[in-house]
Batch of 3 targets.
Target 1
Amino acid sequence: MSSSSSTIPKFERIRKRQLSPDQAHIQIQTKKSSMFSKTLLTHDDYENIYKNMTILFVGENSIRILYRDLIKVITTGRLLDYTEASCCNGHYKIVEGETIIKAEGSIGTVGYKNIRKFKSINNSINIIFIYLPTIMDYDLTVDNLRYLQDEKLENKIDFIIFGSYAQDMTKEKIIQSNLTYKEYVDKYLVSLDSVARYLKTFSKQQQHQKREQLFWISPYPFKPDMSHEETCEFERINKEIDNIMKLNMYQKYDRFDLFVRRPDLVITRISHFSLHGVREISDSIARTIGQQMNRSFTPAIPFPSTPLTKKEQQ
């Protein structure tokens, strides 16, 4: 055998793409949070819970993340990774089964439109996401939701998951409005009530269900280290919102409670949920839907006692 034929060829070393500081921080925080997460629902659980359903996610960027997380677990059984979650707008690569219905306008403007749809052929799961850049202009909001009318989805959607707060309730938006703070908050609350009522027209009426198939994803502090006064005002507005959504028969998913109760699921530096935090929200919603629709899934188990939790309890 010649020496040339016995030589092992050299292979170029695979180098991982360097992460940005924010992506690296998210990666670390997500790995930490996974140490304390309870049993996650499985891919099979999600398929069984959502089989033959049409689900609508509608609202701000954080609702898009929940839409993407649901698709991820249905298609792969996995969590979103930190590079996927770092893209908060609609400019990301589609996955198998997903279609871009509309993508136009400039990101960060009220003219930005982003509608996506996912269809799982094997299990007849349909998931729609409609981005709402604002709810302060009712006519604009109805225009953004026109796709639902065009597809004749009135009384056809099994569950609606709605959240819209962070993109309207900012200091910059309040200043630009030329309204007083009270006037602006009152306008937001009136607008929220109008949009909540409009969305109900697309919810399928289930005679055997005691509740409407509607979820309100409550806001949480997107600003870290709020002052006592800011926290009190945030809680006051949240109570006003709760009253409106309760009257409209929406079930509340309390992100603020999760934000306070589970700091291990929060990336504190940027005041966002980690990827395990996102999945905790997805799992909680899925479990609620599974219970209401009498569908089987993996039961939750209590959190194990850990040195960290013991220290927090002390």
Target 2
Amino acid sequence: MPGSYPPAGQFAPPGVPMRRPSTAPAYLCAALFLPAVVLTYVAAIVSTDGSVESTFDMHMLSALVAVTFSDDVTGNIDFAVSMSYTYLSVVLLFVVLLCIRLGFARWVGAALGFVAVVYYFCAMIYFLSNDATEMIVMPLVLVVLWLIPAVVAVLPPTGRAMRGYRPRPLMGMPMGPSGYGYSSRSTTAVAHRHRFPPNRRIRQQWATSGNTCASYWRRNRYRPDGAEGCRGPLGP
């Protein structure tokens, strides 16, 4: 209907305005990172002293980033706590940039999310191989919490919500029936003529290029048979 908008991401016919893509996926993606970040921050705060006095402390300890390597590096929990704070701070930085809708931020955020997924999956295997089956609960939860925003970040709707997104340019027009003056070259030239070239010299070249029905009609308007074979949008 007149004045209506086509679906986001699709081309509008001439004279119909194109609807801007929604920015909601960008903010949704940024919000989906927060549960994993908050949960790991809480685990780092609770496990700062390294004491394990209850089942809750044990689960919080297993949620730390690089806890499986902490014994080999420092011999205590300090390495895992510091790595958790550092990793989460970097993730939060790119979450803020994602809220600003910077295109590169979603790719970096997705990469950080997938790295966390791989680590916690390996942590589950480590705990199972060391007969610590009760410690795989939090890594399993964090695998899901990191995987969801990482997948959402690489989806096309999130990319269309970023700043500077431009839809693909119109490359041609629908082909007409054979014998009516339509060809791939002429329809492309006609499509470009409707885009108002900014340069006068280019407009003159297109007008005299001989690839459009209008040029064919101008060349043959004094012939007895005229330009009957050219019935395109710019024909007689």
Target 3
Amino acid sequence: MKNLLVITGILISFICSWSLSKAYYQSKSEEESAIVIQELTEKYQKMKVIDSLKIVASIEKPQIGITCIKNEDGSLNKSEKEFLDKVKKYYSDIEVPISVSRKFIYENDEYHLEQVAFNYSEDDNGLYFGTYPYYNVEIKKDTQTYELVYSNSAGRALTSFGTITYNSMTEEVIRVDYNFGTGAGTSAIYVNGIQQYEKSEQFDTIY
């Protein structure tokens, strides 16, 4: 009987110890789990921020090796107006646009202006300025100066194209022009509106 009581006491003591240990480790496990969950949550939030920054960076700053073009519509800015005023001082046939479309190229961690296309409106007959079925003018810009590139056509009678540049050192507005019609074409160079060179050529076949 005495031995039975001792055994029973040992069993009760073991069960109580086991229960307390289980509760302790469960609470410890829950506490550690909460810490782990908190750490994972913080890491997830940081990753979300990093991913968001990467997305913004990929939009604002294209990857190396990828050509990125950005287009904007607007009006001539101050420097473009000044350049066009110098051009029209000697070559009034270049028309002022109603608006412009700018094209930017992404290079060396920033956007650079590459082209300014002049926008014109057609009349009810589909002609520009009542004469030209086709009339195109663009400004191309390098690091130093502007260059105006033009081309237009009045049909079989006359088509012309060329470039106009401004030399800020000599203050010269230089135009290189080529025009042709039915049977002949002419190349010419002008400096400040004064012709410096001309060469005409007859075509073997009628255009």
